[in-house]
Write a structure and sequence with these properties.
The radius of gyration is 18 Å and the shape is elongated. It is built from 11 helices and no strands. It has 2 domains: 80 residues, Endonuclease Iii, domain 2 (Orthogonal Bundle); 101 residues, Orthogonal Bundle (Endonuclease III, domain 1), CATH 1.10.340.30.
């Protein structure tokens, strides 16, 4: 795929959704970090239901620690893997309080040192909470990048590095959200909705489905 076509793809995605953002509900970097930690193998809808119960009671690291592990689990027990997630969140809160004055760090190294936080989660926090042009490659972004040929790669790291190199700078901060939303609602895993896709004529997928 050439640079002109790639630029037009992101221009159309921007025109279709000028201010994209995560579908997780959050109002502070810590709330976002909590929501992302809870979101592994869970839907955003399910996470939002859990955080709607949790955040009014505790939405700071110290408040989570004050809740205690058992009470925290009771607030998030509707989410898969909630036992492990609760333990990681408690450990994370302790580190945030003891090492970062209760604030979410803006450094990738510090973020990835938190329990349960890998590169993808760190990228989400850096991008969504702090506005940095990072791209967290999840299953949707991996699929869209390969299927459209925007940035094909054999693994998530390869796709991430290609996107960072190939996405035009003006689109880089929001590319993460556009690609996730495109994969979630249009470029579906089993059967893409090519007929209703705003970039269908630019996409290089060979087996397009006219829906």
């Amino acid at each position: 795929m050439n640079a002109l076509k790639r630029h037009e793809i992101f221009a159309r995605l921007r025109a279709n959704n000028p201010e994209p953002t995560t579908e997780l509900n959050w109002s502070t970097p810590f709330e976002l970090l909590t929501a992302v930690l809870l979101s592994a193998q869970a839907t955003d809808v399910g996470v939002n239901k859990a955080t709607a119960r949790l955040f009014p009671v505790a939405n700071t690291p110290q408040a989570i620690l004050d809740l205690g592990l058992d009470t925290l689990k009771s607030h998030i027990k509707t989410i898969g893997l909630y036992n492990t997630k609760a333990e990681n969140l408690m450990k994370t809160c302790r580190i945030l309080v003891e090492e970062h004055d209760g604030e979410v760090p803006r450094s990738r190294t510090a973020l990835e040192a938190l329990p349960g936080v890998g590169r993808k989660t760190a990228n989400v926090i850096l991008n969504t909470a702090f506005g940095e042009p990072t791209i967290a490659v999840d299953t949707h972004i991996f699929r869209v990048s390969n299927r459209t040929r925007i940035a094909p790669g054999k693994n998530v790291n390869e796709v991430e590095q290609k996107l960072l190199r190939l996405v035009p700078r003006e689109f880089r901060r929001d590319a993460h959200h556009w690609l996730i939303l495109h994969g979630r609602y249009t470029c579906l895993a089993r059967r893409p909705r090519c007929g209703s896709c705003v970039i269908e004529d630019l996409c290089e997928y060979k087996d397009k489905v006219d829906l």
